[in-house]
Design brief:
The chain is α+β, with helices and mostly antiparallel strands and 236 residues long. The protein is built from 5 helices and 7 strands. A 7-stranded antiparallel β-sheet has the order 1-2-3-5-6-7-4, with helices on both faces.
């Protein structure tokens, strides 16, 4: 397994960003403008993806053909329109200076290909289910040879949160409970199965399991509560 990680490092040395796929410099971005900026979709296969995640990706893409499932694109940074939409919810609250917001990055997309969080999410709107295919790279190590607990907690929160977002709009985590059952080998692939359990006004209750590709090993289980943001109230 450690040899496989080393192979990832050697392969990454040959990787280059595709034309148009690099991150724009801060001077090229206009904060809160309505000009669309095209970013690289990080939820499609790249050379660091191993055969397990590629196979699952192809299987779910086939499910997308009949419209029952949808692949969710994912970028290192959201559009300026999305930032503006979120900023309007702050009212008098202030999270960051406007001059710095153009340099923000989505945390789970802040590593180079193959080093950190490699994942893709598929959503079933009828069943209110989300499936995340996740490959944890060598920069996410905790105990030697295994994924850091905080890294899998991050992906659990991201998957559960996206499930709630798809069901009800912009939400924030209010509570997250995780039972870690087994450590996850570094550079391996796991499947996070998430579903919306119930909705009570602005409260969204979501749960998930984290399993091996063959579904024989249960690594973690989690439950969570997300609160839909109220545009009439400040976050601070």
């Amino acid at each position: 397994m450690l040899r496989r990680c080393a192979a990832h490092f050697r392969a990454l040395g040959a990787l280059r960003c595709p034309r148009g796929g690099g991150r724009p410099s801060p001077g090229q971005l206009r904060p809160f403008s309505f000009e669309k900026i095209v970013y690289k979709d990080c939820s499609i296969p790249n050379p660091s993806w191993n055969k397990d995640i590629r196979l699952l990706f192809d299987q779910f893409m086939q499910k997308c053909e009949d419209g029952s499932w949808t692949r969710l694109p994912s970028y290192r940074r959201g559009s300026t329109e999305s930032i503006q939409d979120f900023k309007t919810l702050l009212r008098d609250g202030q999270i960051t200076k406007e001059g710095h917001i153009t340099q923000t990055n989505l945390f789970t997309r802040s590593f180079e290909d193959g080093l950190g969080f490699e994942y893709v999410m598929f959503y079933n709107d009828v069943e209110k289910r989300m499936v995340c295919l996740f490959q944890g790279g060598p920069y996410l190590e905790g105990a030697p040879g295994f994924l850091h607990g905080g890294a899998i907690a991050t992906m659990i929160d991201a998957t559960l949160g996206m499930t709630a977002i798809m069901a009800g709009g912009i939400v924030m985590t209010a509570n997250l409970n995780i039972n870690f059952k087994r450590p996850i080998p570094l550079c391996s692939v796991v499947v996070i199965n998430s579903q919306l359990d119930k909705v009570e006004e602005r409260k969204f209750f979501v749960s998930c399991s984290v399993q091996s590709v063959d579904e024989k090993t249960l690594y973690s289980e989690a439950t969570s509560l997300f609160i839909k943001l109220d545009p009439d109230k400040s976050l601070t």
